[in-house]
Design goal:
Elements (H helix, E strand, L loop, with lengths): L2 H7 L3 E4 L10 E4 L3 H7 L5 E4 L4 H9 L4 E4 L7 H10 L3 E3 L4 H10 L3 E2 L6
Parallel strand pairs: 2-3, 2-6, 3-4, 4-5
Antiparallel strand pairs: 1-5
């Protein structure tokens, strides 16, 4: 699913990465614990999180996450935005809860981007 479609589906605004709205994503990972992202996120996934500090962008970069969607109406801190621009990492902000955002993405066919043990 293209990031532009995800933006519309989640009623999200683009904060950075407007040049990457045609990027295609197949997987989603949701977490507020960045240690979980590092341990379980698959490269190229979308990260859905409520953590808005610069650590979310650093973690996404290290874990090779393809985009971050901040939820619950939250917006990233200025340092996070600056770093995301440097890394060419799309950041979006959605008013939805984590549950609803992930539910909408799942309903549209996106798969889990988390390789957690079964």
């Amino acid at each position: 699913m293209k990031l532009t479609e995800i933006k519309e589906l989640l009623d999200a605004e683009v904060i950075t990465g407007a040049n990457r709205l045609e990027d295609d994503f197949q997987e989603v990972c949701s977490a507020d614990l960045m240690s979980d992202v590092l341990a379980f996120a698959t490269p190229g996934t979308i990260l859905v999180t409520g953590l808005t500090n610069v650590q979310s962008v650093i973690t996404a970069h290290v874990a090779e996450v393809g985009a971050i969607i901040y939820i619950r109406g939250k917006h990233p801190e200025e340092d996070a935005i600056k770093l995301a621009k440097q890394k060419n990492l799309p950041l979006l902000a959605s008013p939805l809860s984590m549950f609803e955002a992930c539910g909408r993405l799942y309903a549209k066919g996106l798969k889990s981007g988390s390789n957690t043990p079964k």
